[in-house]
Structure of ATP-binding protein:
Amino acid sequence: MGTNGSTMLKPLRQGLPPLDPAAVSDAASCALPARFEAVREARRFTRGTLDRWDVGDRFDDICLVVSELVTNALRHAVPAGECRGGEQSPCVRLHLMRWSERLVCAVRDPSHETPVPRDSDDFSAESGRGLFLVESFADSWGWHPLAGSLDGKVVWALFRLRTAC
């Protein structure tokens, strides 16, 4: 990342979201195939899930970030549009997890490459702004490599939810 320009992002955080996974109140996930139509499937899945969870004014932010994370996974983490592990093993998996006042969307992919935000002031470019949008709309985000027999990484975004008064 560069040190100048109005689009400078915070340093990329490596690690898990700062939430206790045992305290999750709602969770949903779906496997996505290695084709760009999967972004539409991810949006549909996210909208249906968020409708049931009542996330208030963060609905559109979360849907946008899910689209960007899934697009990035398909574009940069799936080699030549094909899954490792064949058709039986999904390339990308979307996880949505809700706590009382927070929501995490996490996208698992088969790559070991670190997500790298582009340092670009060119807002007319047709691509390259995905992680800038994630940074802009999520409260925090990061990534972590998968452990054990799982291959790849998870890129996550955390959203603070307003509670009803």
